[in-house]
Structures are given as C-alpha cells and as structure tokens.
Specification:
Number of domains of chain A: 4
Distance between the termini of chain A: 27 Å
CATH topology of chain B: Alkaline Phosphatase, subunit A
Largest sheet of chain A: 3 strands, antiparallel
Order of helices and strands of chain B: HHEHEHEEHEHHEEHHHEHEEEEHH
Oligomer: heterodimer
CATH superfamily of chain B: Alkaline Phosphatase, subunit A
Number of domains of chain B: 1
Shape of chain A: globular
Helix content of chain A: 55-70%
Radius of gyration of chain B: 22 Å
Number of strands of chain A: 7
Structural class of chain B: alpha/beta
Shape of chain B: globular
Number of strands of chain B: 12
Number of helices of chain B: 13
Strand content of chain A: under 5%
Distance between the termini of chain B: 24 Å
CATH architecture of chain B: 3-Layer(aba) Sandwich
Amino acid sequence: MRTLIGMTAAVLIVGAPSSDREAIRPTTPPAGDSTERARALHALNRLTYGPRPGDVDRVVALGVDRWIEQQLHPETMANEQLETQLPGFEILEFTDDDLAAMFYRQQRERRQRQLAMRDSTQKMDAADRPAQRPRQRNQLGRLTGQFQQLAVTRAVVSEHQLYEVMVDFWTNHFNVFIRKGPLRYLTPHYIEYVIRPNALGRFEDLLVATAKSPAMLSYLDNAQSVAPGSTNPQLAQLERRLRQASNSRRGRGQGDRIRQLERRLEQARERSPRGLNENYARELLELHTLGVDGGYTQDDVINVARILTGWSTSRPNQRSAKFVFNMWAHDETEKTVMGRTFSPAGSDEGVALLQMLARHPSTMRHVSRKLCMRFVSDDPPDGCVEAGAQAWKRHDGDIREVLRAVIASPEFWSPEVRGAKTKTPLEFVVSALRAVEATPDTVPGLAGLVARLGQPLYTHQAPNGYPETQEAWVNAGALLNRLNVALAFAAGRVPGAAVDHNRVVGLNHELHDMVALVNEALLNGTASPNTLRVMEEQAAQTANRRQARAMLIGYALGSPEFQRQ
Amino acid sequence: MNDRSIDRRIFVKGGGLALVSLGLDPIFLTRAAYAVQRPGGPANNRKSLICVFQRGAVDGLNMVVPHGDRSYYDARPGIAVPTPGKQDGALDLDGYFGLHPTLSPLLPFYRDGSLAMVHAVGSPNSSRSHFDAQDFMESGTPGVKSTRDGWLNRYMAHARDHEDTPFRGVAMGSQLPHVLRGTAPALAIDNLRSFGIRAGRAQDRVASAFEELYGGSASGLVASSAEEGFEAVRMLKAINAASIEPDNGAQYPNSGFGRQMRQLAQLVKAEVGLEIGFAGVGGWDTHINQGAAQGQLAGRLRDFATTLAAFAQDLGSRMADVVVLTMSEFGRTVQENGTRGTDHGRATAMLVLGGNANGGKVHGSWPTLAPERREDGRDLAVTTDFRDLFAEVLVGHLGHAELSSVFPGYKSDVKRWVGAMRR
C-alpha cells in the first residue's frame, strides 16, 4: 500500500499517463422524466453494485420495472464480459479434491519441515534456517487470493448484478471463515456449489445445502458433535482387537503387539469426540433461521444439537471431506424443539427440522428483516419486513418472490431511504470500479484493497458475517482509507485493475465542463453545490487538464456523496 | 461541567442544513464538535482507561483456575489445569485460585499488588449468543437491544470536565466498536503509521480540499467522523507517535493484540490526551480441543498475558495513571463438552491491572462449581453484575460519579462493588 501511495503522489503531480483517445459523453441533459431517472438511479444504487456511466439512461429506456424483472431473472440475460473473463480464473478449474490434495500436501510438508527443523536445531545456526524452507510457491494460497479477486470481478463485471448482490448477502448470512483448518480448501467449493446455485432459489434448499456442506459442518463444529455414549466403529474395532490379543495365548511378540494396540487405541480415543457440541445448533437458530428473539430456549439449542448428531464429514484423506451421516453418532432418543416432537428417524430428523425452521414465521421475519436492511434501510421499516414475510409464506420461501415483494414495497421507494445507506468497503471499491469502467484482472489486488478497508472476503471469523449498518463502517480512520483509495483511482494506479481516465471524460473539455461531466459520470449528477465548488477550485489551481481531470476523479470518488447509495 | 452545546457543530459547520437537508443519521449518532475549542497543547499526566475485549467468550475457569474447587476437576477430566505443584499446574494465587500457567508473565503484577482479578462476573441477561451478549456488555444495557451508543462513549459525553482532544477515545482496529459509538467523538485507528492522507508532496493540499468537501457536503456520522479524522491527522503529524519505541525493554508479541496494545502505549506516552483506549482480541470460542495447560486456549492466553505484561512494562511508572480492564461477553460451560472443548456459559473472570487496582487478590463472591449452585444446572453463576465492576473502575480510576448516565436504568450500589479498586 505504501508503494502504491508513493506512486499516487508522483502521478498526481505529473498527471496520469493515458492515451488521448476521446470518450464520447452526452453533453446535453439526457432524455427521460426526472422522477423516472430518480427511480432508476435508486434501483441501480440498491440492486446493483452501483451504476456505470450511462446505466441510468439504459434503465430509463428499458423501463425501471422491466429492468428489475430482468435482474430477478438473470438466467434470461447474457453475460458476455464476465464469460470472457472467467477463463482467466484458474481456481475454477480445480475440484474440491484437487484443492484438498494441495492443502494436505502443504500440511504434510510443513510437518516435515518442522520435524527437520527440530532435529537440526542444535546443529544449525539460526541464520541458516530460512534457507532450508522450500522456495516453492504456495499454490493454494495463490488460488485463494484469486478466488477473493473473483468475487470482486464478478461484482464489477457481471450483468447479473442483483444476483451477485444476493450471493454476497447469503455469503454473509451463512458465513464461513476461510482461515479455519480445512475451510482453506472447502470455501471455494462452498461458494460455487452451495451459495451460488441457491442464491435466488428456495431458502429451504439453501439452508439444507449449507447444513450438509463440509464447510459449514467444519466451521461450526457439527462434524464433531456426537451422541454422548456413542462409539466410533473404528474405535470399537480397535478395542475388539485389543481384547482378542489380550485373551489369546501369549506368544512371541504378543506383548509388543498389545502395547502397540493400546497406544493406537489411546490416540484414537484422544482424537474422537465424546458428546455434543452446541455450536452449529445455536447459530443455526440464532443467525441462519429464527433470529435471536425467535422464541427458542437453551433446551431447544441442545435438542437441535441432538437431532443433528451424526451430520458429519468423511475423514479427508487426500480427497476432500464430504458430507456423511454417521448413524453410530446419532442420538436415537426422542427430541422436542419448540413444541414439536421428533421421533427417531436418523438423518430425516435433521431434514424435517430444517424444513420446520425454513417455514417458521420467526425465520421469515428474521431473514426478511435482513433483506430490508440490505436493500432499504439500516433501520428496516416494518412494512417492508412484513411484505417480505408475506411473500415468503405465499411462495414457500422462494427467495426471488421475497425479493420482488421487498422491492415492490412502498418503503423501498420512499424518499427518506434514497441515498441513505453508506457503502460497505466492498460496495465502495466495486462501485468505484464500475463508475470508471475499470477492467479487473486476476491478480488479487482489488481483493487486497477491500481487505485493507476492513472487509477481507471470506475472512470474517465470527459466524454473523460482515455488518450491514453504517455505524460499523463509518469512522475517521475508515474514511481516510477510502480517500486514499480514491486517490489511487485518481492516479490511475489501482492494484488489480486497469483504470483509464479517458473512459470517464475526454481532455478536450473546458475545466468547468469537465467538472460537470465528472459529476455526471461518477456521481450521476448528485454532487452538492459545495462539492462542485471545491472541485472547481481545485481544478482551477491545477497546472494542466490531465492533472485536473485526475484530481476531479479523486475528489468525486472520495466525496461524501459517493460514500452513499 | 463545561456545557459546550452538543448541537453546536451541526449548526455552525452544517449551516443548520444538515438536519433538514439529508437528515439521514439519527441525531444521537451525530457527534458533537467537542474538539473545536480544544485548549492549546497536549495535556500531561492524564488518567487512561484501556479496555480489552476478549471476543468469543473466554473460559474464565481455565484463565483464573478454581483449583480448590473439587467440582472443577470432576467436570473437566480432559481439559482441567492441574493443581499447583503438579506438572503444568496452575500458578497459585491464594490457595484456592490459580493462574493458567501461560499467564505467568502476569504473576509479578499480581504479587506486587497492581493486578486484581474478579471472578464470577457477567451479565444479568442470560443470553448465550455471542452477538447479543457482546452488544449488551458494550451498550451497558443488558437486555435492551435498542441502545445504540456504548457506555464508554456515554462516559465521555457526560464527563465534560475532561479536556477533549481527537485522541480522547481511541479504538484500535478498522471498525469503531459499539462500546465507543455515540455522540462523543471517538477514533478507530487501524495503524498509527498509515493514518492519514497519503498523497506525497500534494498531501496537505489534497487533505485540506477533502476537509472542505466533507465540511460542507457531508452530514451526520460521515461528517463528524471526517472532521475528527482530519484533526487527528494534523495532531498525529506533529507528534509522530508511531515512532515512539517501547521502553524498559518491553517486548510485545508480533500479534494483532500485541500491535494494538503497543500503539495504545505509544498514544499514552505521546501525551495526546488518550483517556479511553480499546483493544479487541479474538479466538476464545473454544468449542473443540481447547486444551488444558497446553493447547489452543493456552496459546491465546500466552499472547494475551505476554502483551499485557509488555504493556505494563513499557509504560513503567506511568502505569500509576493507567488501568487496563479486561472483559468478555460470557464464560463457558463448567462441564467440558463432547469435543474436549466448552460451550457457551455464563460468568467469567475479568482482570484489572494498574492504577489503584486493589491487586494481589481475587475479588468477587464465589458461588462454587457444585452442580446445584450452577446457573441452569450447567454454568458458573453470575455473582457480580459487570456494570458494578465497570462502575467501580470508572469511579475508582477516573473519578466519575454520574453513573446514571453511563448505565441508564441501573443503580450501581457501592455496597455491591467487589473492591477491585483501592478507595
């Protein structure tokens, strides 16, 4: 970052390097009724990662409502630019087994390195040690960075904007933490095959898919939760062999064999779980479905954990961990959750539980409320929440229908909520890239930028995901960091993307017009009189137009207006 | 009480328009312009309170180990810390409680009387949700979810005899925690070294242009945050706090928490008027394989103790004016769970280090771990409301007495205070 900023400074002074190719921008006020334009801008602000230049016109031309319908049906829309960029993302070519193999190889190598180090510590000088480390690149780490960059790229480039917004919404709702053990290799698969296919589908399908995903089972420990008193068959087998060995007549080497079996048994016991782990059960109720005030008790948490005993993963061995149901680990007694009795039925109990939760009124309200928080206001209005919950009920948790109802609610369009939400770091970076029509590449520079602003993707440790409200994101330090990012855009030096100022405005305009055009292109004409004044004064003090243009772009992206959506 | 009006900046800086034109931020989040008439020059010899939040619910029973309680060993066959004297045993404090062995860097402070422990402290609200419980501990209003400001911010808003500087309240990190949100200005600083506008030679000009931009075009939280930021940047540039090295041979671990505390110490030593500091440290949610004397929790505790000890060593005699108060949203189950870890519980232990802490003691009323004395039959019962401890520290260290504003709806009774501070 510091080198980046050094470059920023240099470029601000000498002006951004760019070709003099002319951009064509309308200089006459665009067509369309002003209310319709305002509706289009609001829809773009909330349902996409921010308008690109010209988007408002395009949405007005198509009709705002028709455009929303399109966004709700991404399957009907072409997505050429993204499709041309995806092949650059090597990560998409690897299966979960491939990634698992990389992860376990890496672990093995690290263990060997540590052992080798321990053995040779006495002999070796401390200064020699780093040389012992293999120079080989960390392939999985590189692919992980690429995967984070992929999320930003999709958000910037995809025509299926509402879909990408929903992917981000569910990624936070069903948060996992990529730095926890096997999540290092499980997370890409989780996003690609659990979250993305279900992002506009039925909530119940999404819920069941997350519950069965090795990523969630590992992240919230359910893979390890077993009925108290249950015995892992592997353990039982070892015990049997030990008994047989002890009972058989003593022969040569028999003592060694017994000692060896005892040691293995002890290790296996040490490894295997002995009882319940409430972690997933609690977050399932609190975060994924009912909400913390959804009407459940501590006993319900325990009973949910008992129902889900046996929901686990295969032991990864070169191949990726997969979902398994271990009958031996399952609690086969009757359980009651929120008044409903679950008779012993193996893994069907869990499926029935998830169905019940997906259809529970508390879940409808909790998830609708979060959607309204994302799309309408930090303080979600009741009417919007109610509209979402009603649609949920009518359409059996069809997320598309719930969204349609939220967007159709009067609260979504009310004047008080327009421009009233503050962008998250991801939204800020992506909207800036869209505003200047930058082209992302596969180097994880953009993901790094989002991370430095406080939102490293897939790296929120706690299960509640990144916050949605402005109090979490607006503070002095965070704002200063955003200004520095805006300056990087001004310098045309954004890590992980190509920025061409000519796409914003050509150099053949007078300063005054340039200010107006930058306001139109980046802020959709929303700059306040004060912002316009500051921009004009700053541009006037600048030696040449190229430099003035760079500064105007920096001030526009750093302006308070651009922080809102 | 200095009554600089809370609304002053809204009308002066926003030309009275901020409230009407956008009116987007709730008024209580629109910060006051306290810093506008700050007396010149940094003040000296100021009291600082540093709050450390152990996010994720630390297992208080393995941090401050009740080795004299038989039930402790019955409940934790796989993860108990052995009795003092045994291999990897607890470090005895008073014959009944002991420190986790990795907390050994803190033992000297306990012995010299500057470190006090409080056990069985927690929330009157029995939520075992991390997020609710953290929220309650930060808002200072357990059970009330609508409180949007935090108790430390309310302290700053009401203790107006204290001089304001942009650095009066500082949280390390990229987000301002709930406990510091509210009407009084507070900063979140990720890294002192990179805090500012970075534009090389154009830096000052660009910074002042942005300041004008935000001064006239922003409203509410965005406007106030920006103003605090620009003022802090100017001050930070003058003092260059990031270049202050640790004193007395203190060595901070190269961890997130170590870096946070090191920077808070730099601010204390730079005498920029830091009154409330905040650091967060995670990794305590030990549902699986938490370990006993060694293992996962031990690793977290080692970082925790090494950092706190380095901080106290670094500040040396300044620690007479600095108190570190640690907290965590709740404790963990008495009984170890089926995966050699612990699930969400109730009461935990908190530490008070420095200043006039009544150290060398484990305070609080101990309910014992006997099954019939546990809350809901499973958890260490709460015998001290966290608000009573926080109130005692505020009054005992910062001399603040307006507790009704800091903890609205709660009457903190001196008779319930555990005596963690010397009076």
